[in-house]
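example protein:
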Amino acid sequence: MAKKEKVEKPLRGPFKESREKLRKLKAKNALIAFLVDTVVILISALIISFVIKTFFIRSFYIPSGSMFDTLQINDRIIVNQFVPNVVPLERGDVVVFRDPGGWLGSVPETKATHPLAQISEFFSTFIGISAPDNNQHLVKRVIGKGGDRIVCCDRDNRITINGKAIVEPYLAKGSNPSNTEFDVIVPKDSFWVMGDNRGNSEDSRYHPNTPGKGFVSKSYVVGRAFVISWPLSNMSLLDNFPNVFKDVPAPKP
């Protein structure tokens, strides 16, 4: 004889209500679990971004034309903060540094006044997308480091470093290496910096009467700029032109 299939009777009364409550409870718990996971992910992302911004990289924008044609006004650059404390700063590097004193004069602070703008500024600063102290920093190219003797200029209108003349392909079109003569020796743990747009750059040449005498101490360096991240049309790695400086001899002791 064929076995009769067991037919499950539908639940009625309190049993049906219990199953419905259990289903709703599971759905509610799943939603809560999803929300908790989302919050944890967001908080973790913020913490990771904060750590990266604090110890590894930062973002800055370019406020002036002193680094034409390498950097354009409003370009955004990413800065490696391992330089120079972990990785040494080299000649040719594009460097971001705080005002050593007297370079920028009095810089008024600009803060967002609308509450939503303040919240947006707080979060973008927290994760390193923006830098509210951007206008207190400068961006230049390192030409000389501690011990180097830098002279402008030789008979061919070239800057010399430790007696070796250099040809600078990164200069803005039509720029001379310098219209100002100088003969300096860079102190230990300091740098001589110049803008690529030499005719429109208030750099080391023009600050001999400031506390640092035109030199930038290592302690003021934020890091080395290594990429243009915005706008997309300008996105590129920043070259430090090692071939320009490869034949420069070591400074005399």
Summary: The mean pLDDT is 83.
